[in-house]
Amino acid sequence: MTASAVACTVKSPVALQIGDVQSDTSRPGVYVIDVTFPQGQVVKIRDVSFKNYYTGFLTVRLQMKGSACQEGSVKWVTCLRNHRLMPNPHTEEGSQDYFSVYGHQMLVEPDNVTAVRLILRQPSSSWLNFTLEEIKIHQCVNDDSEREVPVWFSELTPVDQVPDLQGLPDPQAVASSIQQMWALTEVMQTSQTAVPIGRFDVDGCYDVNLLSYT
Amino acid sequence: MAEKRRSGVSMAEPKIAKADSEEEFLSQLGVAALLRGSLLKLVEARPEDPIGFLADHFANLASGSEAADCGDAEPSRTVQDRLSQALWNLNLAHHSQRSAFNNNVRVAYELLMTGGQHLCPGGGVRGRIYTELLRSLCTEAGLSSSTSAPLLRRIQCQDHEAVPFELFRQGVLICTVFADYVRKSQSLYLAVCGGSEVPAQRALCQAALGALRDALDTTQCADTARYLEASAKIAPCTLAQAMVSAQSSYEAQAGASMDPEEFEKEAVALFTARIQPVS
């Protein structure tokens, strides 16, 4: 199954903090990143991949389109709760690693997803800033049609069973000669230029206007 | 002691003077360049008979300088000389040694163009000389005139036409490749015979030629795919299968055989069908 990154819009992180954003001097500890799909596209997610930047914990919520009879019903479901990205939030380990969160790791099967919300938490005050970068969402693509394999492809490896060669010429010798003849013909064909000798060119003396005067 | 020293110095001087005059003498003649050129040609051509090769090389140089000295000699004789010299140059390198071969073609072209400029206003080798050269190439390579006739019909030029360099090079390359091709087809016939004196079975010959035709007719797609596909068609196992099925066919049971001339003619037809005629 091939996965392809779905085009999505990643909104800039929104800080959640108590108090006024401008006046409060303390740095926020929670960011929320929303990822939406264009034109209300519904996606079956295979995995969400991203590059960490000093985020300690990640919670993922999915907005799922209700498959029930109620049309247009969407609900938010938590599929990953407090997933630890950094073993020790105060230290560097895992701070700039690449992560992938797969569908089977999630609490809910990520079918019919219309939006993804990533909630980032960093309890440590050591870091000035934290976020997730290069967020990509890959969807499952079912490749039903096999790519067309040419007929000769299966003939590239020699057949195991050797046919009965009684009284027949040696195929190696015959093949070798034929291959060299083929190569020589190819050399001739590739060296052909389109340079004309101008045999059928006339230098303008058969111009229609002039002909009418002769 | 002073006398001895003086005599020593005076003895040394004549020796130095003599050596100078020898060096001067050699450099005046330009022998260094001459020898260097001949050695380079020798290394490029690697002939079986190096002395004969060097003799030919110096003879060509001599006739070239003679022609320059005596101005315009009889045109026909000089043309014949130039033709044989051009042929000699072209036989120096095999067509697979691409850069050496191209150099030799350029030299031959220059040779055949000189003196013909007043005859050929378009610039280039005269058609008659070009056709003559191609015919000589084929006969020198050991091909009979009947074998090379269909090839020459396609690539020869009219007497009055002016052959540009690209066309000249292409024609010469085709002739040399054709000579190799005919030799290979003869060895293919021997291989199909299986080394026996009896002429090869018609069905087997047809199978071999059919495989070659298939490989050459591979559709024009990307180069690598085309080569892979063609090579799969002429792999030993594929050919073994083809020959086994050919042998069990009706023609083989009828005992028909193909003689070498017919085989060669069919192989040549395969080759010449793919040559673009000159226009």
UniProtKB/TrEMBL annotation, chain A:
Recorded GO CC terms: nucleoplasm
InterPro entries: Nicolin-1
UniProt superkingdom: Eukaryota
Protein name: Nicolin 1
Organism (species): Paramormyrops kingsleyae
Automatic annotation (TrEMBL), chain B:
A GO molecular function held by the record: microtubule binding
Positions of the Tubulin polyglutamylase complex subunit 1-like C-terminal domain: 80-275
Pfam families: TPGS1_C
InterPro entries per the UniProt record, alphabetical: DD_TPGS1, TPGS1, TPGS1_C
Name of the protein this chain belongs to: Tubulin polyglutamylase complex subunit 1
Organism per entry: Paramormyrops kingsleyae
